[in-house]
Amino acid sequence: MTTFALIGAGPGLGLAAARRFGTAGHSVALISRNAQHLDELTAELAGDGIEARGFTADVLDIESLTAALYAAGTSLGTVEVLQYSPVPRADFMKPVLDTGADDLDAPLGFSVKGPVTAVNAVLPGMRDLGRGTLLFVNGSSAVRPNPNVAGTSIAFAAESAYARMLHDTLAAENIHAAQLIVPGAIRPDSEHSSPDALARRLYDIHTGRDGFRHYSEPLPG
């Protein structure tokens, strides 16, 4: 059994994605800062017959994130699928003219150093398996910069560039890197951007292995 590792585990998209990949036969590693969330999510997945464990880590803490992914691979099985989808903090979203250089430290740590740390932690195992999938989930500011949320716009653009380089570089090793853009809010009543719909889309990206950038629905005009 190989592992689906989810960075940014929560009760919405995180739980839906964990359930979709777990139902397909993967063990599930849930990574979040919130230990209570992890306990609740693992219990819910266990009720569905899915083997899941929680690992507490902060994406801004490189050592804790590396340790969590190492523990996940050791205890549950090699990480075959990594999903990076933590929710950015509200203080990342200042208007561009109110954003100073220091204001970018945390967003860049969150959206660049965090993904680089995670990928470096799981890549050796994927190479040993001879396959793997790296999934990055971002909002529309990753492709259409929004001056009202400068920190995430800048950081998501950098994350997109990193993910695209991984896509181009790792394809020859049967390791697929892809990005899913969710233009609006994730809502239970949304046809294409509900947690369950997005989870299905992420699983289809994993199995289809076609292209780099995908959209849950078209960007608004």
TrEMBL record:
Top-rank lineage group of the source organism: Bacteria
Protein name: Dehydrogenase
Residues passing through the membrane, by range: none
Annotated organism of origin: Streptomyces variegatus
Lineage of origin: Bacteria, Bacillati, Actinomycetota, Actinomycetes, Kitasatosporales
A Pfam family hit: adh_short
InterPro entries: NAD(P)-bd_dom_sf, SDR_fam
